[in-house]
Amino acid sequence: MTAHVPDPAPTPASDAVGPPRRSVGNRLASLAAGSVVRVILVVIGVLWLLPTAGLLVSSFRDPRDIASTGWWEALTDPGQWTWSNYDSLLGNDTFTGSVWTTVAITVPATVLVIALAALAAYAFAWLDFPGRDWIFLVVVGLLVVPVQIALIPVARLFNTLGIFETTLGVVLFHSAFGLPFGIFLLRNFFSEIPRELLEAARLDGAGELRLFFKVVLPLGGPAIAALAIFQFMWVWNDMLVALIFADSGSPPMTLALQQEMRQFGSNFDVLAPGAFLTMLIPLAIFFAFQKQFVSGVMAGAVK
Questions:
Q1: pTM
Q2: Residue 264: what pLDDT?
């Protein structure tokens, strides 16, 4: 005769496993805390953008108004707005030529760093060769070398090679100092690619070059976009290297604006529109690749 086993007692609803119920007061406190954080972030963002807004408004004001009143007064006085500052700046052949000089320096310096850094990062991440880790440590150590320490030696070298005060010299200098960071960023990103994916491609007969161009580069798009934004902004906004190595007859924009400064005047009518025009292209590139920039920086930083 089989003994009857009683059914287990039903579990009360209050004892069921699940997230604890939050009280109304707890929910209101969390909502208030989140609102406070949002308000603080908005205030910080507004304060951060105030100088840019002031620069934009000042670029459309007459020099006499800039010297006599604050830029915020133009918001309530439409009569202070004028295009004359931009007309005089864009009519200056030195400044318009400096725009093309800046592009001729920035684009090659960015492309060269991306190409060389990607190849070196792939080698450090997936190729075995003697001294690989030690060489990578040397590359990482170069990140702390300041630009100023190399100005005089490189100037002498460029003078010997005949490329001092040339666009080529500026491009090579920016490329050399941009490579350590580029290799570091891309190597950390490439090393996170699953090894099984690369091994499968090798079993299918893919060589190292084909593996690099067909597998690694497409997967490394976010990190490459982040590196491109960093390098582009550093070179575009540079003045120190341009002041020493660029041709004074065809300077980049930062140096051209410095040359437009009058001796005994603040010259806001030139600096304000020139500085704002200098900001436009980097801002456009940043917002165009913002998503890739954030994902690339986060993936390259966590390793």
A1: 0.76
A2: 46
